[in-house]
Amino acid sequence: MPHFKPTGPISLQGAPEYQVAETPLISLKVQDRQPNHPGSPALANPEDFAWSLNDNHNNIFLQLANGSDCILSVRLDLEVPPGCLLLDEVQQFNLHILSGGEAQKFRVFILEDLGEPSDLVDVEGEVRLLRASSHQGAEHSTLSQTSFNSHVVEVDARELSSAFLRTYFGRVIAVNELLPIAYKGNTLVIRITSANVLGENEREEVVGYHSYRGVLSPSSTLYLSSREGSHHETSSTHNSSAGSDTSRLDQALSHLCINESLQVGEPNSDQLGPKGGAPILVLTNILGRQHRHTGTDVANVTTSDEELFPVKKKLLRPCIALTKVVRDAGDTVPSVHINVDCLTFDRVLLFLEAHLLGKPPPQWSLHLVDDLAKAAEVLGLRPLTEYCQTRLGAVARGVAVRRYQDVVAANSRGGLWLILDSMVLDVKAWLPEHPGGASIIPSQSLNVDCARFFEMYHASRESFLYLRDFYIGEIHPDDRSSVPQGGEDRAAGIAAEPPSSDFLQQLREYTQGFRLKLGLNGEVLQSVAATCSSLKNL
């Protein structure tokens, strides 16, 4: 597979509030499609889709059952065995699935779910050469080394764009998707780097614009480039960077089906395949975007860790501390440096976007709220300050001293209250997200102090981060001796191994900032609300 810049997984990478269409689940066994036909749809038997078809349906769209950015175009063919889905290696790579093994779950994707607008205005893509594996017979693959006519492959970008639009017309195209295409006896692959359903002028006016896929239409414009925006692709070796390039290559091709079927060529090469004789791609007649003057409706914000964010001024308007740059009427883009790290500022921008659009803000984990509160103070962002006060105040109102019998009663009613070093945690909403938690926690950790189990099952202290989200109080001091330890059987006289002192020390150091401080008789010496007092003065 060609050497692309490393990117994250495709699945749901850019899909805020994505809703999976309520269509029936379809179980299909993925099999390799031989021979490969670059750009052709996947193949399936119409029997598997009889419930969703009428006489006018020859093609359908599939997505992974849990949702995926990449939408698969499928052609129905009676020669395909029922219950099977024939995919080439690139399609398998796009969906991050393997041929063989157990059946995969899919759903039919309805184009109307894309919303409006859905037709792509423009698409950007990186062009690479694609080569088949050395162990495949050339007669069964259009991607073999013999398909390259010479060591220099010249590609006319405008001709390739026309061929691409003809091949993929009417299909759903997603950012980071790889799309192979035959070109003058060679096989190329294009990685989609941008997909816009609005034009540039419209995008400048819209706040909260997120476009990551759409339908390729006759009016869509394709902008092609080679690696790093250069016009020429070379496969020469630069020893100084060979190690880093190889590392990036391994990361980009970590998907097993690609690693098994394609072999890495020379270090620092853009080609994969048998070593030696890797051709050079020369991309000519490139259609480039016209250079647009950066609008004065943008301000450059640099964070404390030197990350630069170009941000629309209208988004920053609630930030009183940034009033000067927001009201700057000069011909150049104003800049400002803020004492907020990039990760926190990224969350601030999400909050500002929701605030401007009148949407509810994200419900971040409580361990992030303190940093957001500090950022709100730095930026003079009162709505964010109020958000932080509300989040922490709501937590404080839900915290109380709990009797052990109250915990047992809550669990008998279907609740999931855990006791951890005398803290009471309500984990019912979180349980489905915990690996194995739906079975292990109810069977082992209810109505006991689960500190030992918690220590055993969590190798790192990262698990401490979310305790504050689940904290609803403390076991009354009079009841603590009544709480069995996890693994203890008092009736049978079986004692439990206690948690280690190091674990308890770390746990108490981390949680002391939000735990209730109780007296000997259960009176509250310091409430959770006191830990929020620093916010009152913001």
Automatic annotation (TrEMBL):
Q: Which segments constitute the Cytochrome b5 heme-binding domain?
A: 399-476
This protein's record includes keyword Metal-binding: yes
GO cellular component terms, A-Z: membrane
Instruction: Identify the SMART domains for this entry.
Output: Cyt-b5 (SM01117)
Gene Ontology MF terms in the entry: heme binding; metal ion binding
Q: Which Pfam families match?
A: Cyt-b5 (PF00173)
Region of interest called Disordered, as start-end residue ranges on this chain: 224-246
Keyword annotations for this protein, in alphabetical order, are: Heme, Iron, Metal-binding
Q: Which family does it belong to?
A: Belongs to the cytochrome b5 family.
Q: What name does this protein carry?
A: Cytochrome b5 heme-binding domain-containing protein
